[in-house]
Amino acid sequence: SAYIEFRNVKKIYKMGEVEIEALAGVDFSIDKGEFVVIAGASGAGKSTILNILGGMDSLTSGNIFVDGKEISGYTSRQLTTYRRYDIGFVFQFYNLVQNLTVRENVELATQICKEPLDIDQTIEAVGLRERSRNFPAQLSGGEQQRVAIARALAKNPKLLLCDEPTGALDYNTGKQVLKLLQDTCRKQKVTVIVITHNLALAPMGDKVIHVKNGRIESIEINENPMPVE
Ligand code: ADP
Ligand code: ADP
Predict the structure, then answer these.
(1) What pLDDT score was predicted for residue 225?
(2) What is the Cα–Cα distance from 14 to 90, expressed in whole angstroms?
(3) What mean pLDDT do residues 75-96 have?
(4) Which of 8, 37, 97, 165 has a 20 to 30 A CA-CA distance from 175?
(5) pLDDT class for 203, splitting at 50, 70, 90?
(6) Residue 228 has pLDDT above 70, yes or no
(7) pLDDT, position 161
(8) How far apart are CA 229 and CA 220, in angstroms?
(9) SS3 76
(10) Residue 141 in contact with ligand 2 by CB distance below 6 A
(11) pLDDT of 210 over the 70 cut
(12) Family per UniProt (predicted)?
């Protein structure tokens, strides 16, 4: 059976009298080890999907299963454990701690998880061994995002959720970051989900879920996903 399953997931934000239907009944499934792109215009509902899947936001109705467990039934305490142990997050603006070095940023993430990977090997794997003692402000944007990826991976997560990971990078740097994510997915058997408004990224996904106005517009399966050059 599928590793991740969304069944008729709805999300309504209530702001006083006003209701905003961010997700109007979303169904999809994702297999273990898939590299998935969730694509759609701004406001389509991509972040809402990612935030709910990552246990950072609640859903209004529907069911979500991850690895055989119904996370949509979790208490907030169970969600905290799930976020901490099972999920790695990568954000558009890196969210690194500025007064910690690269190594310290990665180390910090490993302190709250059960079975962390080796810190230095993880930094090496993202190509930043020489940068271990630098501070984030001394690195380029692409390098900072690689630190953020190392930090997320060092937790040894089952699932890596990436919110516009290339959104703040130029085209070529963005492609390198995506290649790192694609390689990681292949080599470490981590399931990787990337959300983006940039359709140029879509052919890289094993699966591309197109979202529009809170609904699934289409789901593309790429038998031969485009490798990032
Ligand atoms: P995307 O990530 O595709 O840009 P979002 O998931 O952020 O889209 O937003 C989907 C819809 O939900 C939008 O109409 C957005 O304005 C609304 N929305 C998102 N977050 C909130 C919130 N915290 N409160 C109210 N409305 C929200
Ligand atoms: P980009 O090409 O992504 O814009 P930059 O031009 O900012 O990157 O940086 C190019 C290289 O110089 C990168 O390897 C970056 O790590 C390094 N670098 C930039 N600023 C500093 C700094 N203050 N201290 C050390 N290295 C730096």
Answers:
(1) 87
(2) 27
(3) 93
(4) 97
(5) confident
(6) no
(7) 97
(8) 21
(9) helix
(10) yes
(11) yes
(12) Belongs to the ABC transporter superfamily.
The CB of 60 under 6 Å from ligand 1? The reply is no
Query: CA-to-CA distance for 91 and 9, rounded, in angstroms?
Result: 23
Task: Report H helices in the chain.
Answer: 46-53, 76-86, 102-110, 119-125, 141-154, 171-188
| 114 compared with 131, residue with greater pLDDT | 131
Residue 181 near residue 149, CB atoms below 8 Å? yes
With a 6 A CB cut-off, is 172 part of the ligand 2 pocket? no
Residues 11/200, Cβ–Cβ less than 8 Å: no
* Residue having the nearest C-alpha atom to atom 20 of ligand 2: 138
15 alpha carbon – ligand 2 mean position (Å): 43
Instruction: Work out the angle at residue 205's Cα, subtended by the Cα atoms of residues 200 and 208, and round it to the nearest 5 degrees.
Output: 85
Ligand closest in space to the Cα of 212: 1
Give the number of other CB atoms < 10 A from CB of residue 97: 13
